[in-house]
## 1
Amino acid sequence: MDQRALPHFQEELQTLQQRLLQMGGLAEERVRAAIACLVSGDVDGLDAIASGDEPVNELHIEVDRRCFQLLALYQPMAVDLRAIVAAVKINTDLERVGDLAVSIAEAARRYMLHPPVKQLIDIPRMGDIAQSMLRDALDAFVRRDTSMAQRVLDEDDTLDALKSQIFRELLTYMLKDAVAVEPAIDLILISRHLERIGDHATNIAEDVIFMVSARDVRHQASPLPDR
Amino acid sequence: MDQRALPHFQEELQTLQQRLLQMGGLAEERVRAAIACLVSGDVDGLDAIASGDEPVNELHIEVDRRCFQLLALYQPMAVDLRAIVAAVKINTDLERVGDLAVSIAEAARRYMLHPPVKQLIDIPRMGDIAQSMLRDALDAFVRRDTSMAQRVLDEDDTLDALKSQIFRELLTYMLKDAVAVEPAIDLILISRHLERIGDHATNIAEDVIFMVSARDVRHQASPLPDR
């Protein structure tokens, strides 16, 4: 008897996906809030974000436990097996995004201690792109949509280019005026945290492509046979 | 019939572990070499590291494929299942360590374009600690040794403290002299890359503790029942 055909397995897999979406929504919201608080200068908001990682961490543990249960109880094969292994990986990525929201809030908190550097340059734009990459990567996972996943991979170049541009601009300020050094370093770090959020979205998109097509697009490798 | 009892499964699991060790050894050696080239000013060496990530990436794909095969063919349970899921995660961590060796080499390459900042402060020491954490975490995985894994977790605080100390020291130079700004930023980035290597070693150590004891030490959670 094929246990994968049991409605119970598909229900459990649905619940697992819902938990991942919930976790992704929470992580994304924390990134959005951190950048919004940086823009508006909301110190209390940043403190709340820096210390509010628990709901994401609880989901992290729950999702891992659900993945183990599904593997142990149903011994899934093919695309179902790939979906659960993808969930294990996506879970790790989302937990890191939660950590990065904390890092952004901490850097923004330090940034507030100094006179501001110009108008935060393109950091809010980087934040928007990182969030939408994350949202699209998770949508692609749930819909098993490889074209959507591919668009996430393409977006990553935009984020990297913005990071480099922000770095060059901040460097100019730092070289001109020592007062800009400390706040500019925090903005550089924030832009790197946002870039890493984009990297996590990229990882998720690669996992989606592998899950759906059993095609490994990481490291531009040759296609693997479907197992 | 319990497929886990088949000698074939244990052989395959051994091979999987050997590949992870091989990958860890490669990644660790690349980190060591990057710091050594930074210290000795070996530009060619750094270029070779920056473009030499392929062997780690090939192992990354191979290990993932082996994990899928083991899950699909043997439907392992309990500690065997946890060992394979741990391998999936460790594989991701080691691939990132390989990427971080590239990032260190690139930052070190940029650092060489400027007059040097003092004697690299404690960066070589951070490199030694990060490497030994990685080595110990993988040893703990192979030996299923939770006390060794716990020692890796403890070491992470040392690495974080060194990172903060390096940051403060470099900041002093940057505030005193604009010429130090660019090279100091690259050293700050290198120290953060090394800290992240320590974080990956920490992830591996946590996975080892979960694999052996089914106890989740991430986020200081309450123990989970053995499944």
Note: The first helix of chain B runs from residue 7 to 40.
## 2
Amino acid sequence: MRQDKILNIPAIRRMPTYLHKLLKMQAEGRVRVSSTELAEYMHIELIVVRKDISLTGISGQRRVGYDIKELIRYIKNYLGWEDVLQAALIGAGSLGTALLGYDDFEHYGFFINHVFDCDPQKTGKEIYGRRVYHIDEMAERFAGNMPEIAVICVSNTAAQSVADKLVALGVKYIWNFANVSLKVPAGVVVQREVIAGGLAMLTVKRKQDKMSED
Amino acid sequence: MRQDKILNIPAIRRMPTYLHKLLKMQAEGRVRVSSTELAEYMHIELIVVRKDISLTGISGQRRVGYDIKELIRYIKNYLGWEDVLQAALIGAGSLGTALLGYDDFEHYGFFINHVFDCDPQKTGKEIYGRRVYHIDEMAERFAGNMPEIAVICVSNTAAQSVADKLVALGVKYIWNFANVSLKVPAGVVVQREVIAGGLAMLTVKRKQDKMSED
């Protein structure tokens, strides 16, 4: 268990939001950005922004701000997003469909190029230009085109058996949206996505508001 | 800006995962749980579990573990989930539909009892038993039945105008799934949900693995 990772969780989670903003600025022709402007955008303190950015290893220039293009490169490098990451999505229900339609992924170099489901209503169809294959076709589809990451969007009850299949095929990185703690062998990394985590953040703030009102 | 909140972000985000597990244990007839068992489930260190749980104010009993029912009560109290929270969902696309189908919300006392969209293909229909109303009907639907929280699942381009409407109607807590930084007046709290934050966590771990392999 590596404590250094645990300490930086909020900063790591914020990185895509910086990146989103920086890519937008770059598209608008902007060249430099100050940490003050980023702090306002992120709704966090200046010192937190500076700490976040220093994690990427870029050297800050107090007066002139950061070079946007360079900062994008440092953030992508920090996250391991400098090369294209290919992914398989298992489960083409509403959540899986939402992920397929998430525009920012392609700007981040994250491509879901395999989609699987076991529902005959879905297999053979296309979602956002990606054809849905049956789960039994995974081995065949992965041959010579192994995804770096698998995204599990199946039901809680099906998630473990899907994870077992993925691990057997050699997948090492799993982004799990099912609300279960997956059992995987050592060397396989699972990132469990708990959607209610954000709700907890919001309601804790709400509770603090209510208490300060009393 | 309150630093105490910022420091506890990972712990707050983990609370629903503890709660999910504890509610499941309770349903199975379990009475007590040790922090060791929770640490194994959460894939985190024992000391982190003990710190997380101590945030709720419950007094730990080293030898006998925690009373599950009591721990559930403390976590719900810590999160402000002891009473039912009513919510409005704006945007009944694939992501909104996924949230409506998220079973755990009702165990957490979080009820989405208003659903709005502006697409005539969706208005008038039912999704998981909730009727979709047109966005223009918000004021009318909220009369006497004001939601505590609004969940924004519309496109990035529509999100700010939806937020403006919600704020004008008196909504103070917004859970924003659109990838934009919403401008809201002081006193309104926005929790921005960045789905790519979890991907960042996974790829940073992947990068560290690759570096230690070299």
Note: The beta strands of chain B are 32-33, 66-67, 85-90, 110-117, 126-127, 130-134, 149-152, 173-176, 189-192.
